[in-house]
Amino acid sequence: MPDAAQPSELATILPGSWNVRATNYPMWLSRDRTSPRFTYELRSENPLVLRDDVSYFTAAAVEKHIVGADKWTGDGFVWRGRGLLALLPSRWTVSGMNEAKTVIAVRFQKTLATPAGIDLLVREGVEVHELRSVVARGSERFGLTAEDFASLTWLDTTN
C-alpha cells in the first residue's frame, strides 16, 4: 500500500471536480445514475473539512446532487450529508494516486445502507490516455490489490 496522503496534501489535491471513471460501487453501476462527478471545496484546513457535492444524471437526464461535508478524522474522512442523510455517515480514504495527482483511488467503508466500495476518480479536464492500463501497471500506487482491480467496472465517459 502507498503511504497515506497527509491532510495538508489532501487540502491541496482534492478541491475541484473529479469524474468517476471506474468503480465497484453499486450506486454507479446502475443505469439509473450516470456521469457521476465529485466536487470538493475546501472549508477549513485545520481541521480539514471539505464541502462535498456528488452529482449525477438520472435515466431521464435530470441532474441530481447529494451535498455534504467531509471531516478529516486522523485516518480518513467522515462524510455527513444534509437532511436525513445526516443520519447515515460514511467513512472514506484516498488509498492512492498517480504521480501527477490527477487520478485518485477512493475507498469507502461499508455502512448500514451501502457496501464497501472503490471509485477511481480523474480530475475534470484531464485526459489520461489508456487509464485502465496506467492503473493496472501501478495498482499498488493506488492502493489496489489484484482483486480490487478485477472488481472495477470502467464507466463509459461518452455520455
Radius of gyration, rounded? 15 Å
Mean pLDDT: 92
Shape designation:
globular
Instruction: Characterize the biggest β-sheet.
Output: 8 strands, antiparallel, barrel
> How many domains in all?
1
CATH topology: Lipocalin
Plain-language structure description:
The N and C termini lie far apart (33 Å). This protein has one domain (7-154): Lipocalin. With 159 residues, the protein is of the alpha+beta class. 15% of the residues lie in helices and 44% in strands.
Give a concise summary.
This protein has four helices and nine strands. It is an alpha+beta fold and 159 residues long.
Write the layout of secondary structure elements.
Blueprint: H1 7-13, E1 16-23, H2 26-29, E2 33-45, E3 48-58, E4 63-72, E5 77-81, E6 90-97, E7 103-108, E8 117-123, H3 131-137, H4 146-151, E9 153-154
Antiparallel strand pairs: 1-2, 1-8, 1-9, 2-3, 3-4, 4-5, 5-6, 6-7, 7-8
Task: Identify the notable features of this structure and list them briefly.
Lipocalin, alpha+beta, 159 residues
